[in-house]
Each structure stands twice: as structure tokens, then as C-alpha cells.
Amino acid sequence: MQKILVVEDDWQLNQGICYALQSEGYRTECAHSLEEAKKACLKESAALILLDVNLPDGDGFSFCNWVRSRKRTPVLFLTARDLEEDVLRGYELGAEDYVIKPFSMKVLLKKINVIMKREPVFGQNIFDDGYLYMNFETANVTVDGKECTVTPTEFRLLRYLSGHSGQLLTYSVLLEHLWDIDGRFVDKHALAVNVNRLRGKIEDGEHKYISNVYGMGYQWLG
Fold this sequence. Notes:
Radius of gyration: 20 Å
Largest sheet: 5 strands, parallel
Number of helices: 8
Strand content: 15-25%
Number of strands: 15
Order of helices and strands: EHEHEEEHEHEHEEEEEHEHHEE
Oligomer: single chain
Shape: elongated
């Protein structure tokens, strides 16, 4: 289940939002302060953050900036601050939406469902699903907001596999496209070693990207 972090200091409202989200099939975590929210983010990434602006130990704008500097988690502001400059600041910080209290729970859930059903960002040079980020132009890879060091071989694997999402790529196809151009011979065992090492870097219990199709090859699941 996708996890949503609810950062709201009003305990009753926080519980009400979490209950509504759980009824929609989401997993939730409550935070009532910036300190709790930061601990939650560092412990486990969320698929979406619902964020109040006025919090007991600071403002949501600074927390949004903190999140965006480390992760690509979508943020939806949920606040009573309705001044135009506040709304604009929220969007300038990269928020997905800015919902002003009081609000309709049905409308909020619809907005959340739209955000959560979006396809991961994937273009010619970028893959970003909120957990794994790959910029093929700058050769930058991050996992859960943290820099991930990959070898040139692993990077070529990432680019080719993710560029053929859902397709079965046989051992021979991968070896031909990844190594023959370099004039080096690499066998199936070496390919398996590289794939396993790469999976150890980018996957965890909740995020799986590479499937081993036994006896045939590999498939990108992201």
C-alpha cells in the first residue's frame, strides 16, 4: 500500500484525515510537528505528504523546502493560510496543490487520488518515481533522496532496462547492447553479478525494479 504522511498539529483533524485515507486503501503516518515529520521522513519515504503551514515548532514552508532538497516526494499543502502570497509561495516551493481550510473531504480525497495515480516521470533523460531518480544526461542516480553511486556498467544497465519497461530483455540482447560496442566479452554470469549488485543498491522491501525471468533474461518493473 502507498503511504501518506499527514503533518497536522490538530489531533482530531489529523486522525480524521488518516481515517479517510485508510478507507481509500492508503497506509498513513501521523506527525503533529516538524520534528516528528522529519523523523518520519528519515525513517521511511512516503508517496505523498499532506502538510499544514502553521505548526508548533515552525512553518510548513521551511519543511517543504527541506523535503524538496532531499527527496522528490509530492507535497500537498493543507492550511488555513489563504493569503495570495502564501498560496503562491507554496506552488513556488514545488507543491502539487494548495488546499485551504475548511475543505471538503471528498474533494481532498479526489485531489489525492489524482496525484497518487500519476505515472512516474519518465522521459528521454529522466526517470523519477519519487523513490528512484535517474538523470541519464548528468549520470546522476539517487535512491530515497540519497546519492547512489553506480559503476558505468550498472549505469548502462539502468538506462537500457528502464528504457524498455515491461519488456523481456534476453541475456543475449542485454550483452549485445551493453558490451559488444566496447569490444569486450562478458558472459551471462558477469551480467547476473552486475544485475544483483545493482538491485542491492536501488531496491528494498517495498521497491522492486528488476525481475529475473528464469532461464531467459530480465524485465524492468518500474
